[in-house]
Design goal:
- With about 290 residues, this protein is of the alpha/beta class.
- The protein has 2 domains: about 140 residues, Leucine Dehydrogenase, chain A, domain 1 (Rossmann fold); about 140 residues, Rossmann fold (3-Layer(aba) Sandwich).
- It contains 10 helices and 12 strands.
- The strands form 2 sheets. A 6-stranded mixed sheet has the order 2-1-3-5-6-4. Strands 9-8-7-10-11-12 form a 6-stranded parallel sheet, with helices on both faces.
- Helix 4 packs across helix 5.
- The longest helix is centred in the C-terminal third of the chain and has 17 residues.
- The protein binds nicotinamide-adenine-dinucleotide (NAD).
- Nicotinamide-adenine-dinucleotide (NAD) binds next to helix 5 and helix 9.
Length: about 290
């Protein structure tokens, strides 16, 4: 098949991943793009439906002008890319791929989206000492951005899997050699949480299908800020408990919306309205809750 000629004003974005049928991204992106007056379509490319050996370039040949990339290929697609942003390289994972003059460049707006969400939703919070619970994809992005933002007295990582904790600590120390970055053994977690200024849940605990709390919430005090990356539901058991303890809280919708907004901006050059996207997400999740 010959390469199609791409019109820069025509955006055809695809999300590549597994089990993405219920993704909120198409609705979030398309509604905002419409409000911005863009010719923008956002479709799903589920790995289960793609032939073996399929690559991003196959989709580019069919007219795709940019990608979101999600589980389980945020790292696997790296070998298909021509360039990486410095942050994506340091993180070793991408969630966005832009296509310019046939070159595929990987970016990571998960990490910058989390920080933008914090700045927007908890504008005057002191980052200070932060414990990130969970060292998977989301935890890596969150911890990376906090370490890069110079979370005052450091970032501590607590994953139930000690090897994952150690791997993330090593990666972060490589990226931020002067940063205060620690891994926590299980028995160190309660004291670290009690001493922290901020706590981020980056585990799936609290999402639909994974009910419960990622740690004993009795440790929470009103001086803590607490962020969750889980966004289904927006109001997790952790945030309910944190609010009851008087904490300042930020739900996973903040990160979701900010990363989507940054991806949209990267792929189109147009700046979305974060508040409008947030209102849309709230309506979408409310609708889901009623189903
Ligand atoms: P993942 O499977 O890559 O990582 C989860 C990690 O949590 C694992 O390393 C696991 O060992 C650890 N873990 C589980 N329970 C734990 C506990 N009680 N204490 C300590 N560690 C524990 O998953 P992921 O891709 O990082 O996703 C995690 C959550 O983040 C999911 O709910 C996902 O939907 C959400 N997410 C949100 C956004 C957003 O934009 N808001 C972006 C990405 C992921």
């Amino acid at each position: 098949m010959s390469d199609v000629v791409l019109d820069p004003a025509r955006h055809r974005i695809a999300l590549v991943g597994a089990g993405i049928g219920g993704s909120l991204s198409p609705a979030l992106h398309e509604r905002e793009a419409r409000a911005l007056g863009l010719d923008y379509r956002y479709s799903l490319l589920d790995l289960d439906d793609l032939p073996p050996g399929w690559t991003l370039r196959d989709a580019v040949r069919r007219g795709v002008t940019g990608f979101n990339v999600t589980h389980p290929v945020k790292q696997a697609v790296l070998t298909q890319l021509d360039d990486l942003s410095a942050d994506a390289r340091a993180l070793g994972a991408v969630n966005t791929v832009s296509v310019r003059d046939g070159r595929l460049t990987g970016h990571n707006t998960d990490h910058s989206g989390f920080l933008a969400g914090v700045r927007h939703g908890l504008p005057d919070v002191r980052l200070g000492r932060v414990v990130v619970v969970g060292a998977g994809g989301a935890g890596s992005a969150v911890a990376y951005t906090l370490a890069g933002a110079g979370a005052g007295a450091g970032v501590a990582i607590a994953d139930a899997d000690a090897d994952r904790t150690a791997a993330l600590v090593a990666r972060l120390r490589g990226a931020f050699p002067t940063g205060e970055i620690h891994g926590l053994a299980a028995e160190q977690v309660p004291a670290a949480l009690a001493d922290a200024d901020g706590i981020v849940n980056a585990t799936p605990v609290g999402m639909t299908g994974h009910p419960g709390l990622p740690f004993d919430a009795r440790v929470l005090r009103d001086r803590h800020w607490v962020a969750d990356v889980v966004y289904r539901p927006l109001d997790t058991a952790l945030l309910v408990a944190a609010r009851a303890a008087g904490c300042r809280v930020l739900d996973g919708g903040a990160m979701l919306v900010a990363q989507a907004a940054q991806t949209l901006a990267l792929l189109t050059g147009v700046t979305p309205d974060l508040d409008r996207m947030r209102r849309h997400l709230t309506a979408l999740t409310r609708r889901e809750g009623k189903q």
